[in-house]
Amino acid sequence: MFRANNPTLKSWVNVPAGNDFPIQNLPFGVYRAEGGEPHLCVAIGEHVADLYVLSEHGFFDDLAIERNIFRQPVLNDFIALGKDKTRAVRNRLSEILDDDLETWDASELAPFFLIPQASAELLLPLHIGDYTDFYSSREHASNVGAMFRSAENPLLPNWLHLPVGYHGRASSIVVSGTPVRRPKGQLMADGAEQPVYEPTRQLDFELEMAFVIGKNTELGQTVSTAEAEDYIFGMLLFNDWSARDIQRWEYVPLGPFLGKNFASTVSPWVVTLDALEPFRVDGPKQEPEVLPYLQCTGARGFDLQLEVHIAPETGAAKQVCHSNFKYLYWNMCQQLAHHTSNGCNIRTGDLCASGTISGPTPDSFGSMLEISWKGTRPVAMPDGSERRFIEDGDTVVMRGWGEKDGIRIGFGEARGKVIPSSI
């Protein structure tokens, strides 16, 4: 067991009941204080702990890590140190924040390295060189296939044999809290004879999670399912915004393009795989048997609760989805093994997203396309309005967490408010 995962640990920093960030979590991020420069940090309770300030006071000197590593605008260089170093930092932080104060007492320095999250600007935590989006939920793929192809045979012939994916747009990934402008594009309305260019009428969210690549490979190198977790640093929430009408008109024959690349929202905290160890579960049984390079042993899924709320500009929010990461048919190890199976190289900081995570019941569907069943089943909101898709002024909020033995390990929020299309 990693020291930081010990469920009996308590911190001298106050962690309210039900908070995502107990001492057993310590997810990594990047923040900036008002008028300051970016520093690496971890979340503890309702605060961020500034790693650069701690390093300047010598708390990491024996770990042989340059202090300037913690004075960066992104986590990439820190992650590239390797898991031995990053685990050592996380374990050291668990000692510094432990309420026994026996090994490392930093309590007197609290005013200098603990900053309320409410007053910290949380930044996009990574330089994302490349981003790949998978399509790994059988329930989601079956729902979409039933809507647009065949209810009797909704899955395409390859779906049960490989984790389908496509390369997305890394430059338009934004951190939680960043407004999302309604995109314009070419679309063909039902019954129309000619396409039009106008703002999307069917803006949607996609409930996803993404994993962060933790080390590089060379072009031509493959990563096996057994090795894959050595290359995965951690996970974050991911909202892959979609313009369904633009997407439907353009995606044949090459797949998603302008209907997807206008924005994706991520949570600011990268939760390490180490912190998620207690939530491992077996994934769904895969039939037919997959090819040898996709076979893997051990529990490769994670029992992580996922929620989506829609908050109108005025009025109360409504929860529209409660799903779980464990529903994914294709796990992260299989996704990464397939991604590199042709020799495609990966780099530290790259993101691989899961695809929409839908469950077996309507309340667990991970997109408005499914929840409203292509707009035919509108969702009643508390203010009396209805939602078929996302409207201007709406804020979509995603949350995720694992909980076991009274310990909640959470991801914070992936939040985005939709603003009107530019003229």
Structure description:
- The chain is α+β, with helices and mostly antiparallel strands and 423 residues long.
- The protein has 2 domains: 3-122, Roll (SH3 type barrels), CATH 2.30.30.230; 131-419, Fumarylacetoacetate hydrolase, domain 2, CATH 3.90.850.10.
- Helices cover 14% and strands 26% of the residues.
- It has 8 helices and 26 strands.
- It is globular.
- The termini are far apart.
Main sheet characteristics: 8 strands, mixed
CATH class of the largest domain: Alpha Beta
Summarize model confidence as the mean pLDDT: 96
Distance between the amino and carboxyl termini: 55 Å
* Strands, total number: 26
Portion in beta strands: 25-35%
* Reported CATH architecture of the largest domain: Alpha-Beta Complex
Instruction: Please give the domain count.
Output: 2
> Helix coverage percent of residues?
10-25%
CATH superfamily of the largest domain: Fumarylacetoacetase-like, C-terminal domain
What shape does the CA trace take?
globular
Radius of gyration: 22 Å
Q: Which fold does the CATH topology of the largest domain refer to?
A: Fumarylacetoacetate hydrolase, domain 2
